[in-house]
Amino acid sequence: MPVAKSFLIGPFQRVGCALLLTWAPHAVQAAQAAQAHGLWRSADQRAVIAFAPCHDRAEQLCGTIAWDADAGTPADTCGVLIARLKRHDGEAWRDGWAYDPRSHKHYKAVLRVQQDTLKLRAFIGTELLGETEEMKRVSQLPPGCAAQP
After folding, report:
1. How far is 21 from 15, CA to CA, in rounded Å?
2. Is 108 helix (H, G, I), strand (E, B) or coil?
3. Smallest Cα–Cα separation from 110: which of 82, 85, 79?
């Protein structure tokens, strides 16, 4: 009987290992994709962007201005959607756009996270010719913005 038991367990163990090996890279990629979620303060310290799954497409990443130093003034940009990225490829969020609310221009965009630094690269044409905005993770919003993410 012990022979039959090991005979049956062997194939199940192999299938389980195969499933685990197939699933593990997807779990790692999902964890890397989620690293972008949260609050990020702009390099000039004048805005905080909330990155989270898009409301209408949870597999995509959206960035909304959650706090703006100009809150309450005519230049207030609280609540403005400034980025939408369609897919995470294991290294970066890609196939999306970034919007500059001051110039009212849209750009192609790529977003990468390295520890507590988010790098949003905006470009026209090729990524090589773009500019990168570096943001630092923050745990809370300063007071002043009516539109909370």
Report:
1. 10
2. strand
3. 85
Q: Is the dihedral of CA 53, 55, 56, 58 positive or negative?
A: positive
- CB atoms closer than 10 angstroms to residue 38: 17
Give the model's confidence band at 147: pLDDT under 50 very low, under 70 low, under 90 confident, else very high. low
pTM of the model as a whole? 0.76
Euclidean distance between CA atoms 103 and 82, whole angstroms: 12
Which pLDDT tens digit goes with each residue over 11-26? 445 544 444 444 434 4
Please choose, from the candidates 85, 47, 52, 82, the residue with its C-alpha nearest in 3D space to the C-alpha of residue 66. 47
Distances (CA, A) of 92 to 23, 142, 145, 149: 20, 28, 29, 23
The helix or strand, by DSSP H or E, that contains position 111, with its residue range, turns out to be: strand 105-114
